[in-house]
Amino acid sequence: MTLVVGIGNLLIGLAYTGLGLLSIWETLSLHRFRGWSRFGIGFSLMAASCGPHHLIHGWHEFQAGCPYWPMLAVTLIGLPAGLIFVLLRIETALGGRGDRPFVSSRHWAVSLAAAFAVAVGWLTGWTLAHPAPDLFSFPICTGLGLTTRAGVAGAAAFDIGSLILPANLFVVVTYGMVGWYLADYQVRRFVAEGAWSLSGVSLAGVFFTCALMHLVYAMSERDPATLPFDLLGIPASVYFLWIVRRVHSDSVVDWNRRPLVGAAATPERSAPWR
Fold first, then answer.
1. Which of 47, 54, 48 is nearest to 7 (CA)?
2. Residue 206 lies in domain
3. Looking at the domain assignment, is residue 78 inside a domain?
4. Roughly what angle, to the nearest 10 degrees, separates helices 164-193 and 106-129?
5. Which of 84, 152, 175, 232 is least enclosed, having the fewest CB within 10 Å?
6. Residue 61 predicted with pLDDT over 60
7. Three-class SS of residue 100?
8. Number of domains forming the structure of the chain
9. Which of 143, 149, 170, 192 is nearest to 178 (CA)?
């Protein structure tokens, strides 16, 4: 189990890091033709937080060797969407087809959303019922003064590692909202065209499962090494949520509808969200 969780997080971390580097490279190299992509910048900032977080978490799993069933479950849930999106981006980078539409009934989407909601409730309840040994070991206020869940009474110094909990819970909300906007756009596309976008659906799944992984991590892990990237994730996720919401409402001129500037031909690469 430790091997699966460790390798899974390393793969996710490498995927985020690679996608972030690709996104920022596309943003820098194509800005002369299409202007600056705020979506690409936001995606790169998000990847700069999530990529190292998962790399450190995966390495920590190999070092600590503390198997935890909810983390295994959420890792397996998050891998399919991430692998599909990464493979499509690799195919695009190599000059292949990349994204493709697929036809499926609305009942498929409803069943998938319902199954994910059940998984979220099940994993949350499982984590709260069987917390990791160090969960909430930071100081809390009681009738007898400051104490800890670990049973150490009396005053205790502030533990900077305790910031891991609120930082990860914050991005649970922001990444969940990003996934919501991406999924809503796919629903609108299905209503208008009768087909789904494979990359769009997988990207929405990436953010939903990323939010779920941070939720389980917040309630089960306390590796101080991830804290700098968890704190970076707060402003990065806020900016990314802001730009995704504006692109969703079509209230910003980004690569979604910017005309070509300074070139007579379409750029070789499509927008980062394609």
1. 54
2. 2-248
3. yes
4. 170
5. 152
6. yes
7. coil
8. 1
9. 170
At 58, phi and psi to the nearest 5? -65, -45
Looking at per-residue pLDDT, the higher value among 172 and 99 belongs to: 172
Closest CA relative to residue 78, chosen from 58, 49, 108: 58
Q: pLDDT digit string (tens) for 101-118?
A: 888 888 888 888 888 888
**254 falls within a domain:** no
- Cβ(98)–Cβ(92) below 8 Å: yes
**Quick one: average pLDDT of 188-208?**
89
DSSP 141: E
Structure tokens at 118: 């059940």
Cα 98 to Cα 87: distance, rounded to the nearest angstrom: 8
| Cα–Cα distance measured from residue 46 to residue 1, given in angstroms and rounded to the nearest whole number | 28
Identify the sign of the CA torsion 258, 259, 262, 268. positive
Most distant pair of Cα atoms in the chain: their distance: 74
Q: Residue by residue, what is the 3-state secondary structure of 242-269?
A: HHHHHHHCCCCCCCCCCCCCCCCCCCCC
145: Cβ–Cβ under 8 A, 6 or more apart, which residues? Answer: 153, 154, 155
Among 12, 96, 49, 66, which residue's Cα sits nearest to residue 269?
96
In this structure, the number of other CB atoms found within 10 A of the CB of residue 192 comes to 8
Q: Is residue 73 part of a domain?
A: yes
Question: Is 257 inside any structural domain?
Answer: no
Helices marked H in 141-226: 164-193, 198-220
* DSSP symbol at 153: B
